[in-house]
Amino acid sequence: MKENSDELGWFRKLQKNSWNPEVIISGFALAFILVFPKSLYEFAAKIIQDWGVNYLGGLLVLIYSSFLLNVFKIFLITHLALRFVWTGMLGVSYAFPEGVINERLPSYVKGFEFGNLKDYTLKLERICSLFFGIPTYLAFIFIPITLYLGVLITIYKLLDLSFFMFYILFMVSILLFVIYGLVISKLKKNVKAKNLFSTLGAVYQSNLGNLRFNFVQLLIFLVTIPFIIHDTRDFTLFFHEVSLTEEQVDWPDKSWYVEDQRDADSRFGRILIPSESIEGDFLKLNIAYYGEDLNYLKELNGDFKMTLDTLSWHNLSVPTDLYRISIDDSVYNELVWKNVVKAGSNQKAYESYVNIGDLQPGLHTIRLEKLAMRMEFFTDSEPKLRKDWAVFDFFKN
User: What is the C-alpha separation between 279 and 32, in angstroms, rounded?
Assistant: First the structure.
């Protein structure tokens, strides 16, 4: 009996002092999370470009990662903000232990019934602990999902599957998991759930109520949407199967194309030139490497040779043959390309020097067309000419 009493006392003491590690852990975790989104953006771009993962796969990885980080970010920021308020209330409670002294109040508020600041402090203490505990519960959900997606992406890469097959594999596995859960729940009358994840979920659901618990989960999802939109901004530049949108052509961001106006550690999605203003007779041009281009070459040289003749396209032997470069109305076909790795971002790219000695000083438009294979889920892929794959103006001095 005494042993149980000692354990209970120790546990209560631990609960009372839990705010200290809570604040430390929240602070360190938040500092890590705030600098992580850029790395996720670069990773999603890397698997599309270097690994040859389809754009949709890279986008889903980025959206999932953004959702995951922003959920934890919201809870950690909220937890720290609540702890800040709680600390203030605790300080006031310590400075004025008697609380509200009605006799000393101004006459116009005398007779009002005020609450007890200590009670509010204790309630806020429980709310703070609740907000700190939710990320722990969510971690038990997301860690297995993240590991499972990692395994699927590894299989997709190692077996060189099409994205359609990857999608089918993912949906079938989810369906089998759901069927397994339903069968187990039907066959076993007394299902044991003596694990930490199930217990945490049951604690939150039974104390908050089923409706409120589901509302909180929906609210979490809705709150993260603006953050996800921000984190995926301009990621369509890595959708190399399609042309730029009309808005992207009319209102280009210079950092997409100009090397001296972008972060050297960031990947570029289409083409890159050294500066908006070019000196001399040669323009250095980089085209982003995409692993899927190798598959395009095989398919286009197989069943679509007639299509290439119809488009008056040159022979395809290397990935750079998928591109056609023009400046104003002049097409540059005879370019020598070399493989390079960009410093800072370690991005693979093709590099060439375009002779612009014949161009008059002034503003010129560079356009890059690409022959791509548009993936369709339920129909065969077919070649598409993307006339506005990259469009940008530069000034020749």
Answer: 43
* Three-state SS at 343: coil
Q: What is the pLDDT tens value at each position of the chain, 397 positions in all?
A: 444 554 455 546 655 666 666 777 777 777 777 777 778 899 999 999 998 888 888 898 899 889 888 888 888 888 888 888 888 888 888 788 888 887 788 877 777 888 888 888 888 888 887 777 777 777 778 888 888 888 887 887 777 776 677 777 878 887 887 787 677 666 655 555 566 667 777 777 777 777 877 787 788 888 889 989 998 988 999 999 899 999 999 998 888 999 999 888 899 999 999 999 999 899 999 999 999 898 888 888 877 777 777 777 878 889 999 999 999 989 998 899 999 999 889 999 999 999 999 999 999 999 999 988 876 554 556 788 899 999 999 999 8
All residues at 6 or more sequence positions from 125 whose CB lies less than 8 Å from its CB, including other chains = 19, 86
Q: In whole angstroms, what separates CA 8 from the centre of its chain? A: 44
CA–CA dist 105, 99 (Å, integer): 12
What are φ and ψ of residue 136, in 5° steps?
-65, -45
Q: Write down the residue that tokens 């232990």 correspond to.
A: 97
3-class DSSP state of 162: coil
DSSP letters for 59-73: HHHHHHHHHHHHHHH
Tokens of 130: 């609740």
Q: Check if the beta carbon of residue 352 is closer than 8 Å to that of residue 325.
A: no
Residue type, 187: L
Write phi, then psi, for 272 (nearest 5 degrees): -145, 130
Query: What tokens were used for 157?
Result: 């890469």
Q: Is the pTM of this model over 0.70?
A: yes
- For residue 202, what is the enclosing H or E element? helix 196-208
